[in-house]
Specification:
Layout: E1 2-6, H1 9-26, E2 31-34, H2 41-53, E3 62-65, E4 67-69, H3 80-87, E5 99-100, H4 112-122, E6 128-131, E7 153-156, H5 159-165, E8 178-181, H6 184-188, E9 192-197, H7 203-211, E10 229-234, H8 235-238, H9 244-261
Parallel strand pairs: 1-10, 2-3, 2-6, 3-5, 6-9, 9-10
Antiparallel strand pairs: 4-8, 7-8
The chain binds fructose -6-phosphate.
Fructose -6-phosphate is lined by residues 35-39, 66-67, 132-134, 138-140.
Length: 269
């Protein structure tokens, strides 16, 4: 697990966009796993800027989103499909048919997971997965005690996640308590993972993820098992890490090594 610490959320967004951009420029048909929420917004803004100002093309890219609420239609303002359309897909040159978000309105939500797994497999697997982390350590909607071997399925959200996300729903509006999410195994199967976190409210989850024991109580700690995960965090999110100085030192050493020997070392495939 590589931990990169940035002075602020803007520099973190730029670095994560550098990594996604290199992936896509090296493999224009890359399969990218995407997250919603406030965390990746800076990354998406950067990608849109690079699409407009540079020659970054998404024409061959396929995407799979991590999760979707059960029980609200795709065109609902709070659906993750709407979030992705509004914050990324409608602003870049990606084919809508190349973007997948689990179907939260399927007649039988239990059928969605296995079908989603098959679609990912048919696309050749995920090259690069972008993640955020919940304050309770969830990734996707894999809440604490999720099986570390889980695949895409329906999950019940915790009270904490429902509360964290209630800010997006009006007080009298139906707020979903169930979601369809890629599983932890689905995530770990990605060839390369970037987890982004900023803000002090993520510091505890970041500590548990990076330095805590591998435990289903902190689903993000499963990333310790992945060979090519980079954690990109800002100073406030890094504030509870006990080996913070070491991660910075590793970053400097790796920078030198990679610059010298393998400038494209991080790219998957
Ligand atoms: C959303 C997702 C979630 C979020 C997490 C953090 O697709 O996968 O795991 O990444 O809830 O949310 P924010 O970024 O809003 O703090």
């Amino acid at each position: 697990m590589e931990v990169l610490i940035f002075p602020d959320a803007q520099s973190l967004a730029r670095k994560s966009a550098d990594l996604v951009e290199s992936q896509i420029k090296t493999f224009p048909d890359s399969v990218i796993g995407l997250a919603t929420g406030s965390t990746p917004l800076g990354l998406y803004e950067e990608l849109i800027r690079r699409y407009n100002e540079h020659d970054l093309s998404f024409a061959g890219v396929k995407t799979f989103n991590l999760d979707e609420y059960v029980g609200i239609p795709a065109n609902h303002p709070q659906s993750y499909r709407t979030f992705m359309d509004d914050n990324l897909f409608s602003k870049i040159n990606i084919e809508s048919s190349n973007t997948q978000v689990p179907d939260g309105m399927a007649g039988n939500p239990l059928d969605v997971g296995p079908a989603y797994e098959k679609m990912i497999e048919k696309a050749g697997g995920i090259d690069l997965q972008v993640l955020g982390v919940g304050t309770d350590g969830h990734i996707g909607f894999n809440e604490p005690t999720s099986s570390l071997g889980s695949i895409t399925r329906v999950k019940t959200l915790t009270k904490q996640t429902i509360e964290d996300n209630s800010r997006f729903f009006k007080p009298d509006e139906f707020q979903p308590k169930l979601a369809i999410t890629m599983g932890i195994k689905t995530i770990l199967d990605a060839r390369r993972i970037l987890l982004l976190a900023h803000g002090e409210n993520k510091a505890e989850a970041v500590k548990d993820m990076v330095e805590g024991p591998l435990s289903a109580m902190c689903p993000a700690s499963a990333l310790q098992l992945h060979q090519r995960t980079t954690i990109l965090i800002d100073e406030p999110a890094a504030s509870k890490l006990s080996l913070k100085g070491y991660y910075k030192f590793v970053g400097e050493m790796q920078d030198d090594l990679v610059r010298k020997h393998r400038p494209s070392d991080w790219i998957s495939r």
